[in-house]
Amino acid sequence: MDSNNDSSDTLDCEEIVEETLIHVVMDNADEMSILNPNSNVRVLAVDSDSPVLQIENKIFHFNEWRYITGTAMFFERKNEVKKIDPLYDNRCGTVLQYVGSTRKCLEMTKKENIQ
User: Transcription factor TFIIIC triple barrel domain spans which residues (predicted)?
Assistant: First the structure.
């Protein structure tokens, strides 16, 4: 076994990190009212210079990627809640579980409707 080959192989390898959560900002906040847990949402060409976001029959086009101040954190709503004596329970009604975070933000603009 040649140790020189091993070291060059590790230098050639790059770690590829794939983000599955995308923080999206829309130019019109009212457009996000169409979202619900059953919405059909697709992100197309996210690695290209012009990604597209499709929510149901609405298309949103890329404005710019930018880094946000602070961190965007993603949570999922948990259905199971441990029963605690009501005297000592000061939790709010919604229980959330941390999923992930990002500092990247994709700004989108609505361009057209699909018929």
Answer: 28-111
